[in-house]
């Protein structure tokens, strides 16, 4: 997957869009045990992810506000059969995680804390020197309630859990675009525990929401 500085006022930024109020959670998904990842079938066509056109967006929250930002997609392949994703994997470059709502020292301090490049705070969030990548691998695709859901194993740090989220896919010639709806996960399932009320006591109003809401866009071209 898997996030403060000064008086911890910006400790809320973590990968994924987080929502502080339970009723505001979007497409909340339960983290389950990792499942067998789907192998590409012989009939599937390979689509290589265009990393420059693809993105992962996040926003984090605490009682008094929110931050948002991006993480770059490093690489990825989607295997497509009869216009439907059959399998695939994409790699997330955690060293690129950054906030997009801040500037100057505030941005630099927050980004460094998220990445774990602040001495003594390496493990607070993503510790990118030790865990430079996260990954998502498809384990299934289903239709329900009129929507398409992708199931897959999300690995952040040393934790791998199975999640699902709703997506829309479109084909334009030899290009496939996958866009997820915003979806919410519990970051502590990937040992991203900083400021979590479910992990630590006596945080007062310095807690950070466990909920992480993520939005993914993948643009992939036929190889």
TrEMBL record:
Residues 46-221 form the Lipid/polyisoprenoid-binding YceI-like domain. Residues 1-22 form the signal peptide. Keywords: Signal. Pfam families: YceI (PF04264). PANTHER family: PROTEIN YCEI. This is YCE I like family protein. It comes from Croceibacter atlanticus (strain ATCC BAA-628 / JCM 21780 / CIP 108009 / IAM 15332 / KCTC 12090 / HTCC2559).
């Amino acid at each position: 997957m898997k996030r403060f500085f000064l008086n911890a006022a910006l400790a809320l930024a973590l990968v994924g869009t987080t929502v502080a109020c339970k009723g505001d959670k979007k497409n909340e998904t339960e983290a389950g045990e990792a499942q067998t990842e789907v192998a590409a079938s012989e009939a599937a066509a390979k689509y290589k992810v265009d990393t420059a056109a693809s993105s992962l967006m996040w926003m984090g929250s605490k009682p008094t506000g929110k931050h948002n930002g991006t993480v770059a997609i490093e690489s990825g392949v989607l295997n497509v059969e009869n216009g439907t994703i059959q399998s695939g994997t994409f790699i997330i470059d955690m060293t690129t995680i950054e906030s997009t709502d801040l500037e100057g020292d505030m941005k630099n301090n927050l980004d460094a804390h998220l990445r774990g490049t602040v001495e003594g705070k390496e493990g607070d969030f993503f510790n990118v020197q030790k865990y430079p990548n996260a990954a998502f691998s498809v384990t299934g695709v289903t239709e329900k309630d009129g929507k398409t859901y992708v199931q897959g194993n999300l690995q952040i740090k040393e934790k791998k859990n199975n999640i699902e989220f709703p997506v829309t896919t479109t084909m334009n010639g030899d290009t496939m675009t996958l866009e997820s709806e915003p979806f919410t996960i519990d970051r502590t399932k990937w040992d991203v525990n900083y400021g979590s009320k479910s992990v630590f006591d006596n945080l007062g109003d310095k807690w950070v929401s466990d909920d992480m809401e993520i939005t993914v866009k993948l643009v992939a071209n036929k190889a």
